[in-house]
Amino acid sequence: MTDVAEAITRVHREEWARVVASLTRRFGDLDLAEEMAAEAFAVAVERWPTDGVPPNPGGWITTTANRRAIDRLRRESRRDDKQKEAQVLYEGDGPERLGAIDDDRLRLIFTCCHPSLAMDARIALTLRMVGGLTTPEIGRAFLVQEATIGQRITRAKGKIKAARIPYRVPSTEDLPARVAGVLTVLFLVFNEGYLSSDPEREPVRGDLTLEAIRLTRLVHALLPADGEVAGLLALMLLTEARRSTRVSASGELVTLDEQDRGAWDAALIAEGHALVWEQISAVAAGRGRPGRYQILAAVNAVHTSARDVRDTDWSQIVALYDQLARIDPSPIVALNRAVALAELDGPEVALALVDRLDLDGYHAYHVTRADLLRRIGRSAEARAAYERAIDLATNTAEVAYITRRRDQLGIA
């Protein structure tokens, strides 16, 4: 029974987005696609413990979901025409024209990121439908309440249906209006894999990071001259290269300065560096200005170029964050800049900057404060900051790391 439950969980994690995307392509209805996918998994929960896990679990889920969708449409007499259309699609009526890239999930991303939808709605809907993230996970990514995310998703699906937004990769002239939302979604999916916000899941989710990279490669193939697409791909590759070293055998987060750099993936680093240098050359030649993802990729290129943490060029990293702050003057950017500045000008200077930021609900803010306070000998305040971070953190590896750091300070 446990093996079957684990198999269903794994199939849900790996196949949910593909099943929803496939159903959306066949029936053109996001609500129907999501409902029938959920029903198919419910049937699996009921039948697989008795019948066994099928040889092709994803195919079984897709077939079951398709049959249930057709049954639903048959029962709804007011949708006779739609049912006939669905039946033709399901049984096959010649080859389907899929466009430049035959990838259901990529088409679903572009559908959800239609410019007629508000940006926050585009992102929330796509994270749910394609990223497979739960509403609470999306809420944590946005730092907003779960109910708000649910409302955004419901409104977005309703607008897609009412406006009959087509399920396809848009034409070349339509891409610029959608690519910003697409990149934001892919970045957030990758981030959820980089450090999962769900305490019930593994702390680092390779399924999400690898899928985000795969989809970003497809977008890069669509828009090879777009610097931000290349920058995001480089950022993902340079971050993914460190995945195997980021959590210890005991399940604790391993920070960048303590990671085994010899175990980083050299091929991914080389590919990421090549993309970064390609973008640097393009900017130097006057072809555009670097955007957010290109700058973040350059920061990661500096980190991954250092064979030892002591070789890190912190002045270059601070300069890059200065550049990023001019286009994204957010408190998160300021926090990351302060971390780098502490290595140049000392923890007191950095702490003065950090204390000005309004980030009380963000656990990483309190971890940063605690580390800076610790370095200048203010142990009681550092301990209090660690405790606040523990209260806010949801990633199990992060909680283990922060707890150990707090406990090293002794009892207050």
Automatic annotation (TrEMBL):
Residues 109-159 form the RNA polymerase sigma factor 70 region 4 type domain. Keywords: Sigma factor, Transcription, Transcription regulation. Residues 18-79 form the RNA polymerase sigma-70 region domain. It comes from the Bacteria. InterPro entries: DUF6596, RNA_pol_sigma70_r2, RNA_pol_sigma70_r4_t2, RNA_pol_sigma_r2, RNA_pol_sigma_r3/r4-like, TPR-like_helical_dom_sf, WH-like_DNA-bd_sf. The keyword Transcription regulation applies. Transmembrane segments: none annotated. SUPFAM superfamilies: Sigma2 domain of RNA polymerase sigma factors, Sigma3 and sigma4 domains of RNA polymerase sigma factors, TPR-like. Residues 178-276 form the DUF6596 domain. The keyword Transcription regulation applies. Belongs to the sigma-70 factor family. ECF subfamily. This is RNA polymerase sigma factor.
